[in-house]
Amino acid sequence: MATPARAALTGMGVAVPSRVMTNADFEKFLDTSDEWITQRTGIKERHMASEGETTASLAIDAARIALEQAGVKPVDLDLIICATVSPEMPFPPTSFGNAFASGNLVRLVVLPTLWPRSTRMRERAAQSLC
């Protein structure tokens, strides 16, 4: 009897933009205060993409960390899933799989809230992913 295929999460990577913007930064150009923002949102600071930082570049950084943690080489990958609500552009959406090129690598991009609503747009999007 064949052994069933198994999947396991063996590494996880996280990357955030390097530029940090605090509520005090917003006070400089908005009529607001740290207290007002914090009270309503709980947010004290946020990470903002700098020049050259993109969804794909951050995904590559995170993927490299995950691969190192898992002790896996990029060539050993069979599937990369990129789930984002902030793609670099609508068509084609974020693509970072080429950084881990392998002949059998499957790339799946999940855009949960940005998938085109019209049939024509969906067809164009599907063609751009091929």
Highlighted features:
alpha+beta, 130 residues
Describe the structure.
- By secondary structure, this protein is an alpha+beta fold.
- The chain has a domain at 73-130.
- Helix content is 31%, strand content 14%.
- The protein has four helices and four strands.
- It has helices spanning 23-27, 34-41, 55-70, 119-129; strands at 19-22, 45-48, 79-83, 106-110.
- The protein has a two-stranded antiparallel ribbon with strand order 1-2.
- The longest helix is centred in the middle third of the chain and has 16 residues, at 55-70.
- It starts with 18 loop residues before the first strand and ends with a helix.
Give the SSE map:
Elements: E1 19-22, H1 23-27, H2 34-41, E2 45-48, H3 55-70, E3 79-83, E4 106-110, H4 119-129
Parallel strand pairs: 3-4
Antiparallel strand pairs: 1-2
- The unreliable regions are none
Mean pLDDT: 77
Tell me the strand order in the biggest sheet.
1-2
The separation of the N and C termini measures 36 Å
Q: What string gives the helices and strands in order?
A: EHHEHEEH
* Fraction of helical residues: 25-40%
Rg over CA atoms, rounded to whole Å, is 19 Å
Query: Given the structure, what is the number of helices?
Result: 4
- What portion of the residues fall into strands of 2 or more residues? 5-15%
Q: How many E-type strands?
A: 4
Question: What is the approximate shape?
Answer: elongated
Instruction: State the secondary-structure class.
Output: alpha+beta
The largest β sheet comes out as: 2 strands, antiparallel
